[in-house]
Amino acid sequence: MDLVFEKNKKSLIKAQVCFVLPTFNEADNIRNIIEAIFDQQVNVPDYQFKVLVVDDNSPDGTQQIVNQLIEKYDSLYLIAGEKNGLGNAYKRGFAYALKTLNPDFIFQMDSDGQHDPQIIPDFISQVNQGYSLVIGSRFIEGGTTPEFSVRRKLISWLGNILVRYIGGVRHIRDCTSGYRCISASYLKNCNFRFLSTQGYSFQSSLVCDLVAQGADCKEIPIVFSKRSFGNSKLSLKDQLEFIWNIPKLGFRTHKDFVKYSIVGFSGVLINLGVYVFLTRYLGMMPEIAPILSIEVSLLSNFMFNNFWTFKKRLIKSNFLSRLFQFHLVAGISGILNYSIFFVSFRYLMINDIFANLLGIAAAAIMNYLINSNWTWKTSSK
Ligand SMILES: Nc1nc2c(ncn2[C@@H]2O[C@H](COP(=O)(O)OP(=O)(O)OP(=O)(O)O)[C@@H](O)[C@H]2O)c(=O)[nH]1
Ligand SMILES: [Mg+2]
Q1: How far is CA 270 from CA 18, 41, 72, 298, 315, in A?
Q2: CA gyration radius for the chain?
Q3: pLDDT tens, 282-306?
Q4: Are 375 and 322 in contact (CB under 8 A)?
Q5: What are the C-alpha distances in Å from 202 to residues 43, 90, 108, 134, 347?
Q6: Whose CA is nearest to atom 24 of ligand 1?
Q7: Closest to 241 in 3D by CA, of 380, 48, 47, 86
Q8: Is 249 left (phi over 0), alpha (psi -120 to 50) or beta?
Q9: How far is the CA of 20 from the centre of ligand 1 (A)?
Q10: Cα pseudo-dihedral 274, 276, 282, 284, rounded to 10
Q11: What does the pLDDT look like over 251-268, one tens digit per residue?
Q12: d(C-alpha 381, C-alpha 372), whole Å
């Protein structure tokens, strides 16, 4: 008898799925989206749905509508707070869900009807296959953004390229999508200090953090159409934060960057030493000597980076092509360095030493990012 009870009890334990819905002024949309999510419950009976609305004290009455619906749905929850950006709302929502709702998986979803709840079972079937991060993607085959303006398409495309190539998530086509299902075990281990972004760029930081933890990602196509009612909350501040956040994504593996900087500094000393040796001891002309001293320092930088900085990386490309790429990147960085110096000094009237420092800093950062993501790119990325 006990055994039967235990068996029945076990079959009653369903996987818990929590939908976190951030809202700001979504009074016209929130009812439809909540009802449409709960309507999908019958299609995935082995999963128990919970919906958590994270509202930032919307003045349009969003919370009143959610409170009415709480009377109808036992598994609907609402938390409210000050308006502090989409990223902060998600952080609050995740923390609450992980602490009190005991989820196995957490969905991220917009509350304005742009994310179709009818494909929730498709996400869950991927989770069933063992994926820990399932992304509703606008940029894989079958995915579309039919009503995006050319400007928005361009911004989205550029934003994704930056995150993919600088943030170490090249294999993911849509890093800014807000429709995702994430395994709670990964979310628990997220480094929320790294995820310090407050606005929309939280989405891209989160993907990078999950992948850095080893989350196995699968993208499924979505149609991202126009919001049902109301206006977009994406502000200029969000867009600036997105750009500002990009280098931070690149420096995630900061240990590599510190090593790379030490190598770069050693290169300066080697360059100078060889120059002094050639001109003072071998009597070489000062116009010719830098050609050799620059090349020697480039070669020594390459060797140190190859056999020390990026030693642990599993790299597909061969030694000679890496050597060639390294030289090419050095050339591009040199041009960038000079251009920034020239524009700052000549046109922005910045002091020449400071203008040069600006050029060196920008070129050094770009040089690291390209070499880390291209020359020594790991085969798994
Ligand atoms: N709690 C909270 N939710 C927010 C905030 N900013 C945006 N949201 C919600 O996040 C979701 C996505 O925001 P949207 O304004 O729709 O962004 P978008 O989808 O890129 O823009 P549209 O295509 O114009 O809809 C929506 O459900 C918003 O209500 C915020 O500061 N706090
Ligand atoms: Mg939207």
Answers
A1: 57, 66, 73, 9, 27
A2: 26
A3: 999 988 998 999 999 999 999 999 9
A4: yes
A5: 31, 8, 12, 17, 36
A6: 232
A7: 86
A8: alpha
A9: 13
A10: 90
A11: 765 678 889 989 999 998
A12: 12
CA-nearest residue, atom 22 of ligand 1: 232
Contact in structure between 16 and 102 (CB atoms under 8 Å) = yes
Q: Which atom of ligand 1 is nearest to the CA of 54?
A: 1
Which DSSP letter does residue 223 get? B
pLDDT given for residue 380 in this prediction: 52
Is 70 exceeded by the pLDDT of residue 223? yes
Closest C-alpha to ligand 1, atom 31: 85
Pocket around ligand 1 at a 6 A CB cut-off: 22-24, 26, 54-56, 83, 85-86, 89, 110-112, 114, 178, 227, 232-234
Q: What residue spans of 71-179 are helical by DSSP H?
A: 86-96, 120-128, 150-166
Residue 51 one-letter amino acid: V
Q: Using an 8 Å Cβ cutoff, are 186 and 213 in contact?
A: yes
Residue 13 has pLDDT above 80, yes or no: no
Two structure tokens written together for 105: 């998986």
Q: Which residue's structure tokens are 């310090």?
A: 196
Buried-exposed string 112-139: b where 16+ CB fall within 10 A, e elsewhere: bbbbbbebbeebbebbeeebbbbbbbbb
For 161, list phi and psi in degrees, rounded to 5.
-60, -45
